[in-house]
Amino acid sequence: MDAVRLKTIISQDGKLFIKGLPFRKGEKVEVVVRTHTAEQTVRYPLRGKPIHYAKPFDSVVEDDWEALK
After folding, report:
1. pLDDT tens sequence across 1-24
2. What is the mean pLDDT of the chain?
3. How many domains is the chain partitioned into structurally?
4. 47-65 burial by CB neighbour count: b if 16+ within 10 A, else e?
5. CA quadruple 23, 26, 30, 31: dihedral positive or negative?
6. How far apart are CA 67 and CA 69, in angstroms?
7. 22 with 2: CB under 8 angstroms?
8. Domain that holds residue 55
9. Continuous H helices in 1-69
C-alpha cells in the first residue's frame, strides 16, 4: 500500500480539492482527513540535524573491562 501525504487548506465553502495524486483513473483509494497541528510536526526533532562525534575512535567503556585492569 502506497501512502501519499499532502497538506492543503479547506476552502471557505468547505470543499477540499486534491490535484496531482500518483494514482491511475479508477483505482480505489482510502482518504483520511485530519487536522494539522504543530504537535504532529515535532515527531522526530533531531531528523536532519548534523551529527558531530568528538572522539569517534576512542573506546566507550574502556574502564569497565576487567581484563584490562
Report:
1. 678 888 888 889 989 888 888 888
2. 81
3. 1
4. eeeeeeeeeeeeeeeeeee
5. positive
6. 6
7. yes
8. 1-69
9. 38-41
